[in-house]
Amino acid sequence: DPLSTSAKTRPAKGRKVDLSSASVKAYRAELSALRNAFKKWLATNAPRAQVTGGWDISLNAVTVKLNGTSLRTVRLAPQVARAEYGGLYYKTAEDPDLRLVDAIAGWGAGGAANAGKGVKVAIIDSGIDITHPCFDDAGYPAQTQLGDRRFTNDKVIAAKVFYNKAANQGLTAAAIDSHGTHVAGTVACNAGTPADVNGVTIPYAPSGVAPAALLGNYNVFPGTVESARSEDILNALDAAYADGFDVANMSLGGGANGIQDLLTIAVDNLDRA
């Protein structure tokens, strides 16, 4: 079991896994030893296959580039409980009306100024443009900013990229595509933000559903990348959990085609943790 669900490390209700505790570090070492044992088995029994990544928070798992090895061979390893092909996911978005989702009623007596205050929401998407007025950090207290600080402020407090070719292609967490910015605005655009579309002023000032929340840019569609592997998304989710985010939004769908991608199990495990 991964850290999120193991009886040794799973958190009490309302808490998170304490990644700094001695017991969690000891169990992480156990999980690492298991994954290393699998790598040794693979090197002997399927030398063309290559381990390309691994996790221990949401899943105790690795990713393997098969290089012609059959999936059946991987399943024969004594350490393997389950093996399947990864999925591809694509950006999707729907715009809720705040009144239709009862967001304004949900704000209650605290109003927009307190709606989502103290909550950190990770946007697993194509980045967040911090120059957009929805994400102006004026009035927000100073925050610890994580990742590439060219793309963070005291509203959008993390900016990281998750794509296996990002370094080779010079890709960053920058919001080249507008989809993630759109989604982040739906979640937490500052209350009453003046806006226009193509120079035409919108006759009302938009707000996000939780306008006082803090945001994290976990970019799985950097640059012009249009599809994210389940591996990329899982890397982003584990990173967001380790970074202390409370909620993750994924406005994406696509290529799972009816399989129960391990990503779906990882999401359930993170929810439990």
Describe this structure in words.
The protein has 273 residues and is an alpha/beta fold. Helix content is 26%, strand content 18%. The chain contains seven helices and twelve strands. The strands form four sheets. A five-stranded parallel sheet has the order 5-6-9-4-11, with helices on both faces. A hairpin with a 5-residue loop joins strand 1 (50-55) and strand 2 (61-65). Helix 6 (230-242) packs parallel to helix 7. The longest helix is centred in the first third of the chain and has 24 residues, at 22-45. It is globular.
Outline the secondary-structure elements:
Layout: H1 22-45, E1 50-55, E2 61-65, H2 71-75, E3 88-91, H3 103-107, E4 120-125, E5 146-147, E6 156-161, H4 166-169, H5 179-188, E7 196-197, E8 200-201, E9 214-219, E10 227-229, H6 230-242, E11 247-249, E12 252-254, H7 262-272
Parallel strand pairs: 4-9, 4-11, 5-6, 6-9
Antiparallel strand pairs: 1-2, 3-10, 3-12, 7-8
Helix pairs in contact: 6-7
Query: What's the number of helices?
Result: 7
List the strand order in the largest sheet: 5-6-9-4-11
Number of strands: 12
Biggest sheet layout: 5 strands, parallel
What is the overall pLDDT average? Answer: 93
Distance between the termini: 12 Å
Q: Find the structural class using helix and strand composition.
A: alpha/beta
